[in-house]
Amino acid sequence: MSEELPKNHPPIVSPEAWRAAREAMLVKEKALVRARDALAAERRRMPWMAVEKDYVFEGPEGSATLLDLFAGRRQLIVYRAFFEPGVFGWPDHGCRGCSLGADQVSNLVHLNQRDTTLVYASRAPQPDIARLKARMGWEQIPWYTITDSFDADFGVDEWHGHNVFIRDGAKIYRTYFIDNRGDEAMGSVWSYLDLTPLGRQEIWEDSPEGYPQTPPYKWWNWNDNYDAEDKPDPQWVAVTDAGEAAFRDPDAPVKA
Question: pTM for the whole thing?
């Protein structure tokens, strides 16, 4: 790649001018964050669609229903990834776009702590999926084989997409769907939770009355420590309390 800068690059300025430009941009960035939060709040008020059909997948341990894919949790996100005969890269690789998305998936332990499961689904047989996961380092992602009309029924027979579901006991409801460029931002715990009907489940969110919510930051943990800690560590509570105060007052000192 060329080491030369583009000829029409922005001007080189003093530290003071750079800070002023950054402060002006920050106003727009904060507006974007607030707009994103408002959109997520609207998603939490989207109507739900009952899933009336029984869908069956194949998993590492055999046959699995859509309800099984929840793994006992309340919310489920299913990403349709293209890995099957006829897809560019078969049989060594999945679709390049879907594969780039899989590379972005963060540690799912944190998502699970918000009662949410993420799974991938493709039409490739399980032995091929297992081989691909091992080759690409995707062992953490639960990945199922589509065996029926699930992809066609939920808008992902021709292209990729994320379908979001919630359950009430054994009753399942479709709550949201994104595809195309909406998929490219996925991968972090926040991007996934912002798609779900319950959201991040933190008290600052604009959610309908009665939705589960806890204080922000308090539930965060090391990915290997959730099982060892049944409530927030007092020291972490103190750190997060001080952090919240600092966010409200940028001049307040705080240490992690």
Answer: 0.94
Distance, CA of 209 to CA of 190 (rounded, Å): 21
State phi, psi for 168 to the nearest 5 degrees.
Answer: -120, 95
* 156-179 pLDDT, tens digit each: 999 999 999 999 999 999 999 999
* Cα–Cα dist 153/15, whole Å: 55
Instruction: Determine the Cα–Cα distance for residues 215 and 202; give it in Å rounded to an integer.
Output: 6
Q: Which helix (H) or strand (E) holds 62?
A: strand 62-65
Structure-token pair, residue 62: 């055999």
What residue type is assigned to position 108 of the chain? L
Residues shown for the chain:
256
Q: Give the integer Cα–Cα distance in Å for 59 and 56.
A: 10
Both tokens of 16, joined, read: 């003071």
Regions of the chain short of the pLDDT cut 70? 249-256
How far apart are the C-alpha atoms of 161 and 242, rounded to whole Å? 40
Q: H or E element: which one contains 146? A: strand 143-146
pLDDT value of residue 2: 72
pLDDT for the residue 256: 56
Task: Compute the half-sphere exposure of residue 111: CA atoms within 13 Å on the CB side of its CA.
Answer: 26
234-240-242 Cα angle (round to 5): 105
Nearest to 166 by CA among 69, 57, 64: 69
What pLDDT sits at residue 243? 85
